[in-house]
Amino acid sequence: MIRFFHFHEEPSFGGIPSPADKLLTGTAIGLAGVLLGVSVAFTQTAKGPIPIHFNVLGEADAWGDPTFYLVLGGLGLLTVGLCLIASRYPQLIHLPVVLRQETAVQKAVKCRYARSMAVVCGALFLSLLLLCRAYETEASWKTAATALLAVSLFAVLVVTITASLHVVRTGKP
């Protein structure tokens, strides 16, 4: 029997994922599916050029082909996938702090934050897709899409800083 979503994953260092880790992994995989579906749907229903670049004020200043939705969705899938792969191999995760010798607990914490980053990156690329769509259709929810993008970018910063501090603190005796 083939299992499509196999959540009994054991990281390369021997740690066993907790239910929270499995929830983060499942959420990231779900977001990847949503990214794929949204990018395909937006590409098929686009009526003309779509915004592909925004200025500092959040206004569209460059327009391109609707296949950009597929490119953006593909980049999102790639980013989420790389974060999930890194969550199984902590040696692939580099933080802006110096660690002498990593303990198993530090490796487990790094893997959890990689899963968290997968979810945050999925939300970031989804917000980019929604922002492009809002400007393409002249929707009234442009401000909400811009705010979602800002929150997603801030979440990337928070996860990176929190992961760095948490990993360093779990390594202290």
Sum this structure up briefly:
It contains 4 helices and 2 strands.
Provide mean pLDDT, rounded.
Answer: 86
**Helix-strand string:** HEEHHH
Query: Structural class of the secondary elements?
Result: mainly alpha
The 3D shape can be described as: elongated
Main sheet specs: 2 strands, antiparallel
Task: Describe, in plain words, how this protein is organized in 3D.
Helix content is 63%, strand content 6%. It has a two-stranded antiparallel ribbon. The termini are far apart. It has 173 residues and is mainly alpha-helical. It is built from four helices and two strands.
Structure characteristics:
two-stranded antiparallel ribbon; 2 strands; elongated; disordered N terminus
What is the fold's blueprint, element by element?
Layout: H1 19-45, E1 50-54, E2 60-64, H2 68-86, H3 104-136, H4 142-171
Antiparallel strand pairs: 1-2
Helix pairs in contact: 1-2, 1-3, 2-3, 3-4
